[in-house]
């Protein structure tokens, strides 16, 4: 019984995770994403960047954001 409840909880959280929007405020990039870009960019340059491995949704958000051509162009102007 306990294992069944645990597996049900996992499947529910997985299903909910798949239904999340791609970006912070929905399916399109917004000011919320743009506001977090510089902070996350600099954080990813630190030795602590591996923390994002524990947060797959945040990591997926970041990877989809930096894959955009505009983000690549913007990152060339950011000084580390």
From TrEMBL:
<dbReference type="InterPro" id="IPR036282">
    <property type="entry name" value="Glutathione-S-Trfase_C_sf"/>
</dbReference>
<dbReference type="GO" id="GO:0005737">
    <property type="term" value="C:cytoplasm"/>
</dbReference>
<protein>
    <recommendedName>
        <fullName>glutathione transferase</fullName>
        <ecNumber>2.5.1.18</ecNumber>
    </recommendedName>
</protein>
<dbReference type="GO" id="GO:0043295">
    <property type="term" value="F:glutathione binding"/>
</dbReference>
<dbReference type="GO" id="GO:0004364">
    <property type="term" value="F:glutathione transferase activity"/>
</dbReference>
<dbReference type="GO" id="GO:0006749">
    <property type="term" value="P:glutathione metabolic process"/>
</dbReference>
<keyword id="KW-0808">Transferase</keyword>
<dbReference type="InterPro" id="IPR004046">
    <property type="entry name" value="GST_C"/>
</dbReference>
<dbReference type="InterPro" id="IPR010987">
    <property type="entry name" value="Glutathione-S-Trfase_C-like"/>
</dbReference>
<feature type="domain" description="GST C-terminal">
    <location>
        <begin position="1"/>
        <end position="80"/>
    </location>
</feature>
<dbReference type="Pfam" id="PF00043">
    <property type="entry name" value="GST_C"/>
</dbReference>
